[in-house]
Write a structure and sequence with these properties.
single chain; Rossmann fold; 10-stranded mixed sheet; 10 strands
Length: 291
């Protein structure tokens, strides 16, 4: 099927190479092809006054040749390390975020490399944040050096997104032969004693709902060991702390307008800033990947 392919944002950097390796491993397990996407814009404005300095007008043959050689090496390396995976490269003349969102429209997964954003870049939003907010398929941001035995953490934040998050987490854990750790962060109301009867009952109710959701997916994946826990604290920070010792954390992706995202960041955006392992953000409309 056309949409059964993994799209990788690739620019030749160390982070992009790590993302490509992650995607190739995933493609080998799931028997789907990989598309490496390189995106760049080229200046085309030429001042009317001929005496003024002007940027070169696209196309620039040297730049195109360098990009083609870089992508060619990446495809050759992929053929050597993953000979059973079909790989090709594509160049998009656009910003990285726009190009990847467009390619994600008919893909099963988008994989990006990246460091934790900081400073002004974190405040305004990164490419990974933009793509995860608008892509129609799951987006994985690869980071860290996990062990093959590390678990997959599922952040069950909102009930309406919990099903797709747990589904993706169980699928990933099943093909890796590792357990799932389902985590729900619960914030008690302000001004109330944490150990009061009302809060204790509320935590028990939250735990019951979480265990009920987890048991549904455990019946579909009986070979996957799973644990479920409710941790008192803000959902984003609880989940960020749970990423220590994990190889992948899965959370729901919520599309937001730019200003609202800055003023009230989602759990997914918090993970992109704080997670110590790879992050998978899954939209509520996501269809299950078939393995």
């Amino acid at each position: 099927m056309q949409n059964q392919r993994i799209v990788v944002g690739y620019d030749g950097s160390a982070e992009a190479r790590k993302a490509a390796r992650w995607a190739l491993d995933e493609a080998y397990r799931s028997d789907v092809p990989v598309e490496l996407v390189y995106a760049y814009e080229w200046p085309s404005y030429v001042p009317a006054a001929a005496m003024m300095p002007a940027a070169a007008v696209y196309p620039d043959a040297d730049t195109d040749l360098a990009v083609a050689e870089m992508l060619g090496r990446a495809v050759d390396d992929a053929d050597d390390t993953h000979p059973g995976v079909r790989v090709w490269a594509r160049v998009e003349h656009s910003t990285a975020a726009v190009a990847l969102i467009q390619r994600a429209a008919d893909a099963s997964l988008v994989v990006l490399g990246g460091r934790r954003p900081s400073g002004m870049r974190a405040w305004l939003g990164s490419t990974s944040g933009s793509v995860s907010a608008h892509a129609r398929c799951p987006v994985v941001v690869v980071r860290g050096e996990p062990r093959a035995t590390d678990p997959v953490v599922a952040g069950v934040d909102e009930p309406e997104a919990g099903g797709v998050v747990l589904g993706f987490a169980f699928e990933q854990a099943a093909v890796r032969g590792v357990p799932v750790r389902a985590v729900h962060g619960w914030s008690p109301p302000d001004g109330r004693d944490l150990l009061c009867d009302v809060n204790l009952r509320a935590v028990a109710e939250e735990r019951g709902r979480l265990e009920a959701m987890v048991s549904c997916w455990q019946r579909r994946f009986p070979g996957v060991a799973v644990s479920a826990e409710v941790v008192v604290g803000s959902p984003g920070e609880v989940l960020a702390q749970a990423t220590a010792g994990a190889q992948l954390v899965v959370a729901g992706a919520r599309g937001r307008r730019a200003l609202r995202a800055v003023l009230r960041p989602s759990v997914g955006r918090h993970l992109l800033h704080r997670a110590r392992c790879s992050v998978a953000l899954v939209s509520r409309t996501r269809a299950a990947i078939r393995f």
